[in-house]
Design brief:
By secondary structure, the chain is mainly β. It is built from 1 helix and 8 strands. The N and C termini lie far apart (about 40 Å).
Length: about 160
């Protein structure tokens, strides 16, 4: 999803994570009869990750785990509106570099296996989709979490 918000809770050896994403596309063909086609999609990924820190001052982190993937899409093609539901799993692996205590950059790759259901008035389409999502983006993360030793130093 090109528009995504990610939230993580931190633990000693593993984290919980939640990602919410949106997609939107529209196309209007103007001719004798105007035709609209487009779509809206909403995706949620949630799961757990384990991690290992390494390197000088533990600046590097490799993380891995499995997410549940859920989606809802509404597509319209010239007088044909179709709703699609999807759900599946996505194992992932990623690499993170901590610039300082609050700011980091990371990338991740995953493989998604998703079951898709698209009901319509005359039939229901069922499909199984598998896709590899390579580490094609570098994300910037800001950590709002304060460690216990930081809270003690402030007092």
């Amino acid at each position: 999803s090109p528009y995504q918000i990610s939230i993580k809770t931190y633990g000693e050896e593993k984290n919980k994570r939640l990602q919410i994403g949106l997609t939107l596309n529209a196309n209007l063909t103007v001719s004798n009869n105007s035709n609209f086609s487009g779509g809206f999609g909403f995706q949620i990924r949630s799961g757990k990750e384990r991690f290992e820190d390494f390197g000088k001052d533990d600046k590097w982190r490799v993380f891995y785990g499995v997410d549940g993937v859920y989606g809802l899409a509404l597509n319209s093609f010239v007088d044909n509106v179709r709703l699609q539901f999807s759900g599946g799993i996505a194992p992932f692996v990623g690499l993170q570099y901590r610039i300082n205590e609050r700011l980091s950059i990371f990338t991740e790759a995953s493989y998604q296996a998703v079951l898709q259901l698209a009901p319509s008035s005359d039939a229901t389409s069922i499909g199984l989709n598998g896709s590899f999502l390579p580490p094609a983006a570098i994300w910037v993360a800001f950590d709002f979490y304060k460690k216990e030793e930081e809270k003690i130093k402030e007092k």
